[in-house]
Amino acid sequence: MTPQTRVKERAEEQATSMSTDQQSAIRMLANELHRLNHAVMKAVEAGVSVELVRSARHHGGNGNWGDLMIPVVVAQPR
């Protein structure tokens, strides 16, 4: 059974007070996070452990910021 992450739904709920451009960016982010979560689940099912770690923080110059992530992957012995 595949767990439901509800990333897209939560992002849409949070976007109600945002501008159209912000809402579009959040929808794109939610879609990409859904794809990332699916890829992580597939990697785990293929026999590796995956941890996402913040590699840097991007600052937008006006007080906004976002974490940039890298995967740490550990293959299980066969």
From TrEMBL:
Superkingdom: Bacteria
Lineage: Bacteria, Pseudomonadati, Pseudomonadota, Alphaproteobacteria, Hyphomicrobiales
Organism, scientific name: Rhizobium rhizoryzae
Compositional bias annotation for Polar residues: 14-23
Segments of this protein annotated with the region Disordered: 1-23
Name of this protein: Uncharacterized protein
Basic and acidic residues bias (residue ranges): 1-13
